[in-house]
Amino acid sequence: MSPAFSEQLLVWFDRHGRKDLPWQRDRDPYRIWISEIMLQQTRVDTVIPYYEKFIHRFSDIEKLAVADIDEVLHYWTGLGYYARARNMHKAARELCRRSQGKFPEDIDAMTALPGIGRSTAAAVLALSFGKRHAILDGNVKRVLTRYFEVEGWPGKAKVEKQLWESAESLLPDDRMADYTQALMDLGATLCTRVRPDCRQCPVQGNCIAFKKCRQHELPAPRPTRDLPRRNVHVALIRNKENAVWLERRPSTGIWGGLYSFPEFEKEADLQKWLTDTCKMDNLTVRMLPVITHTFSHFRLHMHPTVVLMENNPIGVMEDDDGVWYKAIGEKIGLAAPVRKALLQVI
């Protein structure tokens, strides 16, 4: 079955595959690596403008390695999953320190780098160097789940192991770069989650889900669960220069290394902090609507309190952990809900 699959897929790719994406202009492993990290859990059309701006600023791995993490996160702002950017920055520094910025051609060496898993490493090696490795991103999981009629949620270890074995069984002997791109293209353009275009699919003849009319049932959805809720109260302190005070978050956890507002679990704690730190007689306070943001493991409800003041607050001065943010010319990382709140006050 595997020769038919790869041959049919490559014939289709030669006619219909995507060959003009920005990172396809050459086989530079640095640019392919950047694109693969950005494409994790993010659509191509969303990634392209971010990729182009990022590459314009960090045109090679040395420029990325020497950059300040705040600027790297600034160019990542809006893409989400910020650990990707932090790990990418760490990996760039590690490669420049150990191998003068040269990417390894061994999959074990690739997966040893921060933020690079088996599928990402395989994609970089296949697309850049033509190495014979299987990939298994979200699109490919969907294709193989339908093609082989694999039951169960693909995120389960047992199901994922089966999919890896299937992916390995289909590998061609050559044209690995084209085959890898073709497989990703098939999942992204035809074998889509909601409306798969099976009539145009080059491998429908051996697709078990198509034969049994089960393509809308597979892959099995993630088991449903109620996401826990977390409420936080944040202070948007704006001074007379129309700048807002932001604090750098810890390097780990949600929004690690990004800038956000002073945050409190209870509104009473926020009010006490304002009284102790900002001198309440110097303030004008108003509330903004609650901002909700959903993570993979919980739902965040951010309650913003806007504080307008004539003078800078006592004890809150610009330092290594905070900055007065004016939007124009500032290059720091901001999470989407923080940016949304800032747009209402700046």
Account of the protein in words:
This protein is an alpha+beta fold and 346 residues long. It contains 14 helices and eight strands. The protein has helices at 2-16, 29-39, 44-57, 61-66, 69-76, 83-99, 107-111, 118-129, 138-147, 157-169, 176-190, 208-211, 267-278, 336-342; strands at 229-238, 244-248, 259-260, 263-264, 283-287, 291-294, 299-309, 322-325. The strands form two sheets. Strands 1, 4, 5, 6 and 7 form a five-stranded mixed sheet that branches. A hairpin with a 4-residue loop joins strand 6 (291-294) and strand 7. Helix 2 runs antiparallel to helix 8 (118-129), helix 8 (118-129) packs across helix 11 (176-190) and helix 9 packs across helix 10. The radius of gyration is 24 Å and the shape is globular. The mean pLDDT is 91.
What does this entry show, briefly?
This protein is of the alpha+beta class and 346 residues long. Helix content is 43%, strand content 12%. The strands form two sheets. Strands 1, 4, 5, 6 and 7 form a five-stranded mixed sheet that branches. A three-stranded antiparallel sheet has the order 3-2-8, with no helix packed on it.
Rough outline: globular
For the termini, the CA-CA separation is 60 Å
Q: Helicity range of the residues?
A: 40-55%
Number of helices: 14
> How much strand content do the residues show?
5-15%
What is the topology?
Layout: H1 2-16, H2 29-39, H3 44-57, H4 61-66, H5 69-76, H6 83-99, H7 107-111, H8 118-129, H9 138-147, H10 157-169, H11 176-190, H12 208-211, E1 229-238, E2 244-248, E3 259-260, E4 263-264, H13 267-278, E5 283-287, E6 291-294, E7 299-309, E8 322-325, H14 336-342
Parallel strand pairs: 1-7
Antiparallel strand pairs: 1-4, 2-3, 2-8, 5-7, 6-7
Helix pairs in contact: 1-11, 2-3, 2-8, 8-11, 9-10, 9-11
